[in-house]
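Form 7-S
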Amino acid sequence: MPPPPVADPVPERFDEDDHGEPPVGHDIPAHDHGSYDEEDVETGSSFAHEPPFRPRRNWTRIWTIGAVAFALAALGVFGALQYFGMPDWLPGNRPTFVQAPPDLVLEFPPDRQDRRTLPNGIEYFETSGTVTNVGTETRRLPPIKIVLRDSRERIVYETQIVPPVGELAPGESVTVNEAIVDVPTSAKFTEFGWAAF
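Output:
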């Protein structure tokens, strides 16, 4: 006796309330892409509405703003340098000597400057000169600055001498003698001038 015919199974009806998500192969209702609700925006959904493109940067405007800012900064630095002068920490900025006081004349002849060696082998530099007040008023004597340079005219040593008197009356002179130890062997030339008070 042949077996009875088997009826085709009836497909189950999908119910979102019962299962929570549709099974594979079932049709899903189309979503309206033209609108979005506030919940999508608040939860950061990847399907939330976004503009089709971001606005392009205006590079011309950015470069213009940068150029104006640079020009203002350069103008400010230039004005500060004109008003305050160059900062002291810049190399080569300051002059070697200060401006000579009025009426005071330094005389340090080359034949009175000499490098010598003591019996114990220590080298020292001996210098001698005069300061004269050629004016008609009494002048204070600032410190005297000695600068030693090498063969390439680079400064290798600096020191100051305090004159033996604090001021000179009109027509007076004072002799200045100094012995400086630990002078670099590269020193070849000597310069004399005034140091700042």
